[in-house]
Design a protein that fits this description.
alpha+beta, Transferase(Phosphotransferase), domain 1, Phosphorylase Kinase, domain 1, 2 domains, 9 helices, 12 strands, 30% helix, Protein kinase domain-containing protein, protein serine/threonine kinase activity
Length: 326
């Protein structure tokens, strides 16, 4: 896909706004309870035999300071480990949570060597009979969805747009499709840090265009994966999909950066999926969106995945738009 050259300067809206307050971490807390049930056999295999380069840790090595967030798959805690402040994701006792833990450790183990500044870094992992925990670098700015609930700093749009595009380019170049790219899975750190996180649904890209998950040596076809509001139409419709589905999700993140609302906020998540997959609709961009940004988003959320630009091309074009508009 080709993009028109940006022409106008942006002086207001999400492209130039007031600073946002810093993220405040939680207070000291007791260590989380171990997940119920023996999760070791949920996915088969073991970390020790499949990922020899992952640093092993014991749960007792972590000093938990507070809960950062939680969901069906488990909870994430602010913790200290080996003298460093970290984020510790403790899996729940659900079988799918164990599978996601295996995938995240497996994917990040490969991506962390040499790593990329726009992809969260794996530091270690805990594998005990009742507990699975992944130890990640801590990002002090919280997630993007949290940040968009308040006023954002000047040029915040381009900070996030360029960071996510660069991280996605790295993932795709290394044969990894994220499959759940959305604002809660983009973390912020420091003045400029933007990192793609949560690789529990990630997959290696196959020559056929379909994807297969990595679960400690097993490959399992998954025709529909992700979160409805950010999900590409071909995934909603259970069709073959490729890395371009991540580019569609990226377009939805750009929409969030402009509007500070999730895609199709006026309807349920399931209705949003129907709108995307069956009705071929897209959320309406607000008046005043710069033409270059609007055309970029429209290219990225094109109905035909083959028409969407590659992540590397998107990253280059975002840089050009920023130079022209700021």
């Amino acid at each position: 896909a080709s993009f028109p050259a940006p022409t106008a300067k942006a002086t207001d809206g999400p492209f130039a706004a007031a600073p946002a307050p810093p993220f405040a971490p939680g207070q000291k807390a007791a260590a989380p309870e171990a997940a119920a049930g023996d999760a070791a056999g949920a996915c088969g295999g073991s970390l020790s035999s499949s990922e020899p380069h992952v640093t092993r840790a014991a749960l007792d090595d972590l000093v938990f300071r507070g809960r950062l967030g939680s969901g069906l798959g488990g909870s994430t805690y602010l913790a200290e480990w080996r003298g460093e402040v970290v984020a510790a994701k403790v899996a729940s006792g659900r079988e799918d949570a164990c599978a996601s833990w295996n995938v995240e450790v497996g994917m990040l183990a490969g991506l962390s060597q040499p790593g990329h500044p726009n992809v969260v870094r794996l530091l270690g992992a805990v594998e005990e009979r009742l507990t699975r925990c992944v130890i990640l670098e801590y990002c002090d700015g919280g997630d993007l969805q949290q940040a968009l609930q308040r006023r954002t700093p000047r040029r915040f749009f381009f900070r996030v747009a360029s960071g996510v595009a660069a991280g996605l380019t790295f993932l795709h170049a290394n044969g990894v499709m994220h499959r759940d790219l959305k604002s809660p899975n983009v973390l912020l750190h420091g003045e400029r840090g933007v990192k793609i996180a949560d690789f529990g649904l990630a997959a290696g890209v196959q020559p056929t265009g379909l994807t297969r998950t990595h679960c400690l040596g097993r490959e399992v076809l998954t025709p529909e994966t992700g979160t409805y509001r950010w999900m590409a139409p071909e995934i909603v419709m259970h069709e073959a999909y490729s890395k371009s589905a991540d580019v569609f999700s990226y377009a939805m993140i750009l929409f969030e950066l402009i509007t500070h609302t999730v895609p199709f906020s006026d309807r349920s998540a399931l209705q949003a999926a129907v709108s995307i997959g069956l009705q071929r609709l897209r959320p309406a961009m607000p008046d005043g969106t710069p033409d270059a940004v609007r055309l970029l988003i429209e290219a990225c959320w094109a109905d035909d995945g083959r028409a969407r630009p590659r992540a590397s091309h998107v990253a280059e074009h975002v840089g050009s738009i920023e130079l022209a508009l700021t």
